[in-house]
Amino acid sequence: MGICGYLAMSGKCLVVIGLKLLFLVPAGVPTRSGDSVLKDNITVRQGDSAVLKCNVDSKVSRVAWLNRTTILFAGTEKWSLDPRVILMENTAVTEYSIKIQNVDVHDEGPYVCSILTNKKPQSTKVHLIVQVPARITNISKDVTVNEGSTVNLMCLAVGRPEASIIWKHHSPRGTHKFVTEGEHLVLTAITKDQSGSYECIASNDISSPDVRTVQVTVNYPPFISKARSTGTAVGQKGVLQCEASAVPRADFEWYKEDRRVLNGLNGVKIENQGKQSMLIFFNVSEEDYGNYTCVAMNTMGITNASIILYGPGAMHDVNGATVLPHCSVCLLLTVTSTYLVKF
Where is the Ig-like domain (predicted)? Predict the structure, then answer.
């Protein structure tokens, strides 16, 4: 609100207008289109201070700072009600400067230093430009989807100048790459390799970029990445290992032939740690040798691998991690139906 707005309620508005006219255009001194007008732009960042300078000399009889229709200072007398606006105390003899502290967007606009020298009015116009650092105002929440779905991510930001937005992908494997520019990011037919965190980076070179992150989790069926057959002598400890990647994390079951191996029976222990399952034989016997099936399952699907525990001298592919042949179909159907009953 201008000074006139504050004084109008007490009936002093006309007095103020009269003072402005008396100060800026004294009686008998008409303004002319040829009067000197100097223009300048000052750019500051929101929250900083702006110093508006005006050159004067000893011939100046009257001087004032105005913002639009509001008188800020008339000589050394403060007219502005804004405590952020101050007259520079260390102003040189040839300067008449004011400072606006903690500048905000509403301070942007034209300012005029009006000078009367030798009964000739002059003015210096300063346009204050306020820059605002980029700031993210809205961003998508973390999301969990199934593999093959479409994901729409959104990131909105403000700033002066206008903020630019880029997206970067940080995968669980530790890779980082640029994805795209713009407020919206669309991932069609998403794969498990596209899971991870997506960084929205908003910047306009006014200050450090504003960065926010969206976590994208992609559900996918188990994939057995490690299943190794093992040779162990009778009476020794033997371990069969099975490792499966999956989201959600896979549940494991072990079978020998078509019979499920139960934890803790017949000297056998099953240990599940994260994405790995181990079938441990504390004292291998002849009856323990044979073909075992590791089954990994989650709500997205089920898979299996055949692993063999064999004795010394037996010829086996120690890297054998094979999907079970046609005879395992019945086993998989049984395991799948049993697992889905839980849900």
Answer: 26-127, 133-217, 221-308
Query: Which one, of 239, 270, 232, 243, lies nearest residue 254 by Cα?
Result: 270
Number of domain units in the chain? 3
Helix (H, G, I), strand (E, B) or coil at 8: helix
Whether 33 is covered by a domain: the verdict is: no
Q: Which residue has the tokens 């494997």?
A: 173
Which residues are CB-contacts of 4 (< 8 A; sequence separation ≥ 6)?
13, 16, 17, 69, 70
- CA atoms of 94 and 59, how far apart (whole Å): 11
Domain annotation covers residue 30 = no
Q: Which backbone phi and psi does 102 adopt, to 5 degrees?
A: 50, 60
**pLDDT tens per residue across span 88-117:** 876 556 788 999 999 999 999 999 999 887
Q: What is the pLDDT of residues 62-82, one digit of tens each?
A: 889 999 889 999 988 999 999
For residue 205, what are the contacts with CB-CB under 8 A and spacing of at least 6?
Answer: none
Question: Is 177 found in the same domain as 240?
Answer: no
Q: Would 22 be classed as within a structural domain?
A: no
- The string of pLDDT tens digits covering residues 6-53 is 333 333 343 344 444 444 433 333 333 335 566 789 999 999 999 998
Say yes or no to pLDDT of 323 above 70. no
Q: Tens digit of pLDDT for each residue in 210-251?
A: 999 999 999 999 999 999 889 999 999 999 999 999 999 999
Joined together, the tokens standing for residue 70 give 């509001």
Distance linking the first and last C-alpha atoms of the chain: 65
Nearest to 53 by CA among 71, 41, 68: 41
SS3 call for 5? helix
Residue type, 87: L
What domain range includes position 295? Answer: 229-315
For residue 218, the surrounding DSSP H or E stretch is strand 210-228
CATH assignment of the domain containing 91:
2.60.40.10
